[in-house]
Amino acid sequence: MDPQKNKFGQRIAILRKNKNLSQAELAKIINIGTSTLGMYETGKREPNNEMLSRIADYFNVTTDYLLGRAISSDDKLAWQDLGMAYGGHIPDELKDMYRAIAEEYVKKHPEALKKKRK
């Protein structure tokens, strides 16, 4: 299985579960079959661009986030990429990823640790 497909499926499943939705409920919301959503989550099928955008819009995340693309040092982070889509609470499944992002940021911007909080 392609790791990127699996990352996409994992992220949809995490987002869905964090909203306490079943596959059937989310499938109805985004207007697809439950089996199609199940195939997305298991990496057996990929959405087209329109569906990818619809899913990203529903969860208020970027398509890059859904696709599991790495964040480069030139990219600006959106709050939803750091857990704000979860009301500020980062789900346990995502904590390692966010820790790695933060550590990488500090390596590239050590001055950020020296700034005083107001």
Question: How would you portray this structure in words?
Answer:
The chain is mainly α and 118 residues long. It starts with a helix and ends in a 10-residue tail after the last helix. It is elongated and about 50 Å long. The protein has helices at 3-18, 23-29, 34-42, 49-59, 63-67, 92-108.
Record the SSE blueprint.
Blueprint: H1 3-18, H2 23-29, H3 34-42, H4 49-59, H5 63-67, H6 92-108
Tell me briefly what this model is.
The chain is mostly helical.
Keywords:
single chain, 118 residues, mainly alpha
Q: How many DSSP E strands?
A: 0
Number of helices: 6
Strand content: under 5%
How are helices and strands ordered from N to C? HHHHHH
Structural class: mainly alpha
**Alpha carbon gyration radius:** 16 Å
Helix content: 55-70%
From the spread of the alpha carbons, the general shape counts as elongated
Distance between the termini: 47 Å
The description of the largest β-sheet is: none
| Stretches with pLDDT under 50, minimum 5 residues | none
Q: How would you state the average pLDDT, rounded?
A: 78
